[in-house]
Amino acid sequence: MAKKRNFLGKYVDMCTDFGMKRYFGPEVGKQNLINFLNGLFQGEKVIVDLDYQQTERNREREHDRKVIFDLYCTCDDGSHIIIEMQQLSQEFIKDRAVYYTSRIINTLVPRGFKGNTYELPEVYFIGILDFVLDMPGTERYYYDIALCDRESGDQFYSKLGYKFLVLPNFNRPIMAIKGIMDMWLYVFRHMSELEEIPKFLDKRVFQLIFDIGEVTNLNPSDMNAYELSLKDKRDAEAIRLSIIRQLERAEKKGLAQGMEKGMEKGIEKGIEKGIAKGIAKERARVIAEKRELAKEMKKDGLPIAQIVKFTKLSAEEIEKLK
Predict the structure, then answer these.
(1) How many beta carbons lie within 10 A of that of residue 279, not counting itself?
(2) A Pfam family matched by this chain, by name (predicted)?
């Protein structure tokens, strides 16, 4: 068992499918999820209670796609929140987020109601990403996105939001961690590496996380599920590292080829430039000789027309020679 614990770490990795459900699921994680959401919204809204909803959304029409959320809940203020943990880079993660919220909104539109009421509750998508998001400001670790007016920046619609936590970009040292969201990001990134709850964490918020996260508290069924979930995460990490290495090799190869081509082009341009310079120099020498010859011919009294014919210089140029 000691060997297995060393392999798995002391605490369940929060960035696994099993970890998300263990720490934030309806069995024992409700208060953790409330604490996390309140920390994320930072006073924008205060959640006192929430209800877990079905994470699997069946097709409402034949052509609709079936979707499965990691977590989906409604809060005591009537707002709806979708929470997704993504380990591998998703080319269409923004499209996916919009699609998920659209599916929820579609189910919330009042049906069969006479009149023109389209009043909707708040809907939020929260993405916890273990990869860098392809957006402006690639060093940022938190994006808070809403519908805004392009010119003024004023918020157009306050009941739809997208919040992305980019874990690889959170590299703050312990001494620089300030506020509850920094604490949450630190726990997301480092939970599986810790041996005890760090002193700088607010124990009122995080003590339960560490209590339920110990691997030794898992029953055999949960242990098997966690091992499979951890394997999936490590496989995803291996794929990500492989992709990074391939890109690095391609970049180095491209750079080397670029330098080689650049040198070839440089040599070619140098030769061309040298030839052009030599030709220009030779041309200037020949013209100078023709001018000297034209001067001598003028001194000898030869007609201008004859000098033009012989030297190929223009009559105007020959007239100016002294």
Answers:
(1) 10
(2) PDDEXK_2
Q: Which string of DSSP letters, residue by residue, matches 205-258? A: HHHHHHHHHBGGG--HHHHHHHHHHHHHHHHHHHHHHHHHHHHHHHHHHHHHHH
Q: Which residues of the chain have pLDDT under 70?
A: 1-7, 57-66, 111-116, 137, 240, 243-244, 247-248, 251, 255-256, 258-280, 282, 309-310
Sheet hosting strand 71-75, strand order edge to edge? 50-52, 71-75, 80-86, 123-129, 155-166, 142-148
For residue 156, what pLDDT is reported?
Answer: 95
Q: Report how far apart the first and last C-alpha atoms of the chain are (Å, whole number).
A: 108
Residue 230 lies in a domain: no
Domain count within the chain:
1
Which residues sit opposite 81 in a β-bridge?
Answer: 73, 124
pLDDT of residue 237: 76
pLDDT reported for residue 18: 92
Does 278 reside within a domain? no
Q: Which of 72, 136, 128, 127 has its CA nearest to residue 103?
A: 72
Instruction: Please answer whether residues 86 and 128 qualify as being in contact, where contact means their C-beta atoms are separated by less than 8 angstroms.
Output: yes
Give me the domain span that covers residue 118.
2-218
Burial class (CB in 10 A: 0-12, 13-18, 19+), 18: buried
Half-sphere exposure for 297 (CA within 13 Å, toward CB): 20
| Other CB atoms within 10 Å distance of the CB of residue 207 | 12
In a domain, 190, yes or no: yes
Give the model's pLDDT for residue 1.
43
